[in-house]
Structure formats: structure tokens, C-alpha cells
Design a protein that fits this description.
The chain is α+β, with helices and mostly antiparallel strands and 168 residues long. The protein has one domain. The chain has 3 helices and 7 strands. β5 and β6 form a beta hairpin. α1 packs across α3.
């Protein structure tokens, strides 16, 4: 059975006013909150002149044994990230809602390709860095690179051509 671990993180997203003739605001993940309680509706955390931060949801950050290589890449960066994926809200209460959080940059990259989601990395809190590092230490296995050997080409008649173009 593959090893997994889970940690609840609150997702903070920002609604920022824009000075743009085609779009009046944008949504952007800005932070995660370690140990945040589950919420039923969005909770305003703070606001500025042209922005508001909301605790939009509490999601589970799942770590999987097979993704430890991605976690290692993430932690090797100058600022490790928790990647937050926002999707359009199909129920219509909000324009965008948190869908998924991940510590694996490879998984996050897969959501970037669709174009429907907003995918942003937010700073990974120190407690989460320590938790991810402990998971890597416990479950990562280095897999050596094995270069494939090329097979020799054979002609359709089963004989290899000689250098002078004649078949042997």
C-alpha cells in the first residue's frame, strides 16, 4: 500500500480591482493558513484600497509516496510553494473557487495546460516545509537513470546492409 499523508490548509484568495476596460477585477491565490478550520462561507480577512483577502476554503494537502521527486524539486527552490488551483464556480456563488492544493510542481503544471484554471504558487509556510521534508526523508527512493540501448537496424529481409550497399 502506497504511503500518503494529509494536512488541512486554509486558502486565502485576493479579489483585486483592475484599471482595465475589459475586466474590472481579478482573482489570485495569495497565501495558505496552516491548521485553518473548515468553513461554510467565505470569510473576509482584510482589505485595502483596491483589494480584499478572503479565507475562501479549507482544503487537504495530500502527499503521495510516488511524487516525492516533485516535492524535492519544490523544496530546492529559493521560495518553496504550495500550488493553488482555482476553478470557475459552477454553482454561481463566486466567480472562482479553490479546487485543489498541491506541493508537486509537476501536478500543478498539468492544470496550467487546460487554460480554464488559475494556477499560482503561494509561499509555503515553514511548518509545511518541515512536514514535506519529513515525508521525503521517510519515503523517497532514488531511481537511477538507465539509458536505453539502441537496437540494431535490420532490413526487411532480415539482413543488415553492408557499408558498400550490398546485403550480406
Amino acid at each position: 500500500m502506497a504511503a500518503t499523508e494529509t494536512l488541512s490548509l486554509g486558502v486565502v484568495i485576493e479579489r483585486r480591482q483592475l484599471d482595465n476596460p475589459w475586466q474590472d477585477h481579478c482573482w489570485l491565490p495569495v497565501a495558505v493558513i496552516v491548521g485553518a478550520p473548515p468553513i461554510v462561507k467565505w470569510r473576509e480577512l482584510r482589505q485595502g484600497k483596491d483589494w480584499v483577502h478572503y479565507h475562501a476554503d479549507t482544503l487537504e494537502l495530500d502527499l503521495f509516496e510516488k511524487e516525492t521527486d516533485g516535492y524535492r524539486v519544490n523544496l530546492s527552490q529559493p521560495q518553496p510553494s504550495v500550488f493553488v488551483i482555482l476553478r470557475p464556480d459552477e454553482e454561481g456563488e463566486q466567480e472562482m473557487v479553490p479546487f485543489l492544493i498541491t506541493a508537486c510542481p509537476y501536478e500543478a503544471e498539468g492544470y496550467v495546460e487546460s487554460g480554464d484554471e488559475i494556477v499560482e504558487g503561494v509561499p509555503m509556510p515553514d511548518a509545511v516545509i518541515a512536514w514535506v521534508q519529513a515525508f521525503i526523508d521517510a519515503y523517497h527512493v532514488d531511481v537511477p537513470f538507465v539509458k536505453r540501448k539502441r537496437k540494431k537496424h535490420t532490413s526487411s529481409q532480415g539482413k543488415r546492409p553492408l557499408r558498400d550497399g550490398k546485403r550480406g
